Amino acid sequence: MNLDPDSCWRAMQSRDRRFEGRFIAGVLSTRIYCRPGCPARMPRRENVAFFACAAAAEERGLRACLRCRPDASPRSPAAIGAPVTVTRALRLIGEGHTRDMDELAARLGVGGRHLRRLFDEHLGASPLAVAQTTKLHFARKMLEETRAPVVDVAYASGFRSVRRFNDAFRATFRAAPSEVRKQGAKAGEASEGIALRLAYQGPLAWAELLAFLAPRATPGVESVVEGAYLRTFDAGGGAVGTLDVRRRPGEDALALRLDAPALAPLYGLVQRARRLFDLDVDPRAVARVLVRDPALRASVRARPGLRVPGAWDGFELAVRAVLGQQVTVAGATTLAGRLAEAFGVPVTPNARAPGLTRLFPTPRALASAKVERIGLPKARAEAIRALAQATLDGAVTFEPGTEDATTKALLAIRGIGPWTCAYVAMRALGAPDALPDSDLGLRRALGTTAVAARAEAWRPWRAYGAMHVWAGDAERSEP
Question: pTM for the whole thing?
Answer without folding.
Answer: 0.75
